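User: Fold this; tokens only.

Assistant: Input:
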Amino acid sequence: MSLKRNTLYNLTGSLTLIGVSLVTIPLYLHLIGNARYGVLAIVLLLLGYFNFFDLGLARATANRIAQLHDAPPVERERVFWTALALNACFGLAGGLVLYGVAGVGLAHFFKMPESMRVEVLSTLPWLAASVPVATISGVLTGTLEGRERFGVVNSLQVLGSLLFQITPLTVAYVHGPNLNWLIPAAILARTASMLPLAAAVTHALPLRGAGGPQRALAKRLLSYGGWVTATSLVGPALETLDRLLIGTVLGAASVTYYTVPSELASRFRILPGAIARSLFPRMSSQSADDASRQTADSLRILAALMTPLIVLGILVMAPFLKLWVGAEFAADGAPVGQIILVGVWINSLAFLPYTQLQSQGRPDLVAKFHLLELAPFVGLLWLGLTTLGLVGAALVYSLRGAVDAGLLFWASGQWPQLRAVWPGAGLVLAAWGAVQLAHTPGALLLVGIPLSIGSVVLAWRGTSRTRMKTAKSAGQYKPLAKIER
């Protein structure tokens, strides 16, 4: 399988999903109105939180099946059935919990018109049924990723997203905007999208009915998945606590000035996410030494690709925001986005040691680092907000990302490889410094053009060196190059 091709599949899939949202959100607002769309968004957000009932088994399944790539099919089949049985049970339990929690929350805590409250509460059985659908779909997706079927996975995820978005829209057009029609339509669409995933798994493993669930495998998968769950709970908290504290310290209006540039900056992580997703099953099947070399060479390529993107993002953040949302907003939001982009560059590189550690059976280290960072992050964030405002929050966010990256590089044995990315770090910091000093479009062009050219040259040299190294190597290991099995 080709890592380049798999990365392209993942990148295309992620960008397509963003495109689907950009197209469908205005249609929803037109057909069902702002209020109903807001209630629908709350319901979908609630469903997203209950995905933690997966307990990391989707990732654990991908890891274990990738490790068994050369094993007899019956061994992979046992992993699949064990994970499927576990996640079906966890999903049913999660559905029951959601039924109780959502019933109380939607009835008493969320502000909405009473007519809409009645509509939403009537769909509670559908919401509960969606949890096992999500957990089972996670195992199906993890199985396909473990077999490196990223073209199939992304195609089916795009298809599923289209069904999930378009089916309720169609129902709204035909039957009207009532949520007691729209929510069941969305759940049925998600259930329907699970069926082609199941068919793809039947072909990819393949399933022959020769193996069933095993208690020993369940213990192994749960041990791995438990740490992944801890990461999936603490990680998003580290990503969103800044906004919660901003609302508490500075007020709700300030959250908008922080969130918009922050969301723009976060889109740059699509590329490292696509690469890391492709690398995970490959590294899971490799020895520790091969996985380490894979990380080292992939790091050079990722740094080379991300540096010009981040440099360009820093340079155009202020002009883009000014054009998009106005000069007043850009004056407050651009400095935040520029600082966060520096943190995104650092965080993007950390995707690789993060993936190496999880693929090599050490998800516990990632989770422990996140738990270790949580309390200091909150304290420093409070200090930054009370002294420097939104800029202080952005600085602390980027600092936390740098500390997290340092811990991951140290734990994965990749610390010496950071020497290869110092030129990129210098260009990123130079771009940030330039926008602080260049207060006119002419001055920005004067410093921006050489910085952009320098980052592109660095990208070309970085990828060229890695290609030359790959061409000279005679072993079976090839970083981001085509490997056929």
